[in-house]
């Protein structure tokens, strides 16, 4: 049985004060979702605050990005060893907001995917579990290219790291048209995509495919989380806006508990 995971990506939100209230609100209800895994992804400047609040609680934390380089003259970047220093268990890789807004070469999609695969390799080597985000843009969705786009990135990762690397990886299907729009994918649509992702992994290794967690991300809220999470191939969620409010996020975590039956 794959343990459900709910990941709260705070994106570029928060302050020391608001984080404190959010963390207290989540932790006050942590006993209601202790059977699943929950991880928080604050902006890096708040990593220490989150680490100190979550240490010993059973919740995990990580960052929203990492550098593909080890160390050196890379202004503004954060290395895998720094994440280890702060006790990070997870790291988000290839989030569409980074692909679109910070992708050095969006026109050269192949090179972009290679950078993401390199970041993935850096995380795995440091013992941090990458959560690799994959999803189609609104235009790609409109012309029915979802499967092609999603599988291309998955294939790139497998080609760079070998399928064995996926044994220590979480995948997240995040259709860009659903992110922050209030328009979540339907449970059926998301299930179909998750299913073909799992089948693609199974072509390489059936055991890894059976065990790999595939999260859904895109406008998950307390009132739509349960039907998504109850789909057989959806193993939890990557939550943006819904992770910024303690009550909302707790509801989402509690919805993931329902999956355990
Ligand atoms: O990382 C989280 C996803 O981008 C989803 O964001 P959202 O829940 O605000 O749509």
UniProtKB/TrEMBL annotation:
Pathway: Carbohydrate metabolism; erythritol degradation; Carbohydrate biosynthesis; gluconeogenesis; Carbohydrate degradation; glycolysis; D-glyceraldehyde 3-phosphate from glycerone phosphate: step 1/1
First-listed, main subcellular location of the protein, grouped into a coarse class: cytoplasm
UniProt keyword list: Cytoplasm, Gluconeogenesis, Glycolysis, Isomerase
Cellular compartments per GO CC: cytosol
Reactions it catalyzes: D-glyceraldehyde 3-phosphate = dihydroxyacetone phosphate
One Pfam family this sequence matches: TIM
Compartment annotation: Cytoplasm
Organism domain of life: Bacteria
Active site as annotated: 95, 174
Entry's EC annotation: 5.3.1.1
Positions of substrate binding: 9-11, 180, 219, 240-241
Gene Ontology terms for molecular function: triose-phosphate isomerase activity
InterPro entries per record: Aldolase_TIM, TIM_sf, TrioseP_Isoase_bac/euk, Triosephosphate_isomerase, Triosephosphate_isomerase_AS
Entry's Gene Ontology BP terms: gluconeogenesis; glyceraldehyde-3-phosphate biosynthetic process; glycerol catabolic process; glycolytic process
Record family assignment: Belongs to the triosephosphate isomerase family.
Alphabetical list of NCBIfam families matching this protein: tim
Stated role: Involved in the gluconeogenesis. Catalyzes stereospecifically the conversion of dihydroxyacetone phosphate (DHAP) to D-glyceraldehyde-3-phosphate (G3P).
Assembly with partners or alone: Homodimer.
Protein name listed in UniProt: Triosephosphate isomerase
Lineage, top ranks: Bacteria, Pseudomonadati, Pseudomonadota, Gammaproteobacteria, Thiotrichales
